[in-house]
Automatic annotation (TrEMBL):
Protein name from the UniProt record: DUF541 domain-containing protein
Keywords: Signal
One Pfam family this sequence matches: SIMPL
Gene3D superfamilies (alphabetical): Protein of unknown function (DUF541), domain 1 (3.30.110.170), Protein of unknown function (DUF541), domain 2 (3.30.70.2970)
Domain of life: Bacteria
Organism: Rufibacter glacialis
Signal peptide: 1-18
BP-aspect Gene Ontology terms: DNA damage response
Amino acid sequence: MKKLLSALLLFASSFASAQTIAPENRIVVMGQATVEAPADQVSFNIYLSSTDTLSLDKMYAEHKALESKIVRILKDLDIPSNKISYSLFSVGKRPSDAEKDEDRVWYFEGAQEISFTIDSLRAYAGIRDRLIREGIITFGSAFLSSKEEEMKKEVLAKAVQVAAEKAQVLAKAGNRKIKRVVKIADTDDNDPMFINYSNDTMYAAAAGASGREEGTLIEIPQSISLSATVKVTFQLK
């Protein structure tokens, strides 16, 4: 039994050694790529905030009124429930800005974020104006693409291809050849990193400050850029 165990350990040790690639027989290359697709969606992020210096109940009642208004607006706009997401309501107690402690006033503050997505760029301006007219004075919006998952696959393939081409050039310069890919990761050895450039816009408009426009920038075609960076380790012949 001891002989069998020793033989197995020796085999495992030899196998592990065979799998180890010496540093001089490998090359590590970074690959970066970017792909674009037409924007065909818009996301909205609404930030609800309510405060009161005296009563937690009054602050909460103010928040519930804002929340009810948002629910009514989303129903009026026919936003499907599967396109809406929201954070849980959070509440805290914060001091006001004051140079002296005796002048500082503590107040209750409640906060919640509500997000929704629309599948029509043409509807963007109308929804934006509706939110402002209803007194929803702090919200953000960003362009999105329904093809983002396809873009992720495409940009990863391109990033690896870029890394392979760089590795071929470097190996040739050193009179070597690429044998195979050993490992693919990002710079932190995690999953490949994606960056979505979506033209994020924040609004903090005064209630009722909207007006009819003859034209809108949303009529100009927009595109979404998705970038990925990978680190590829190649074994050299």
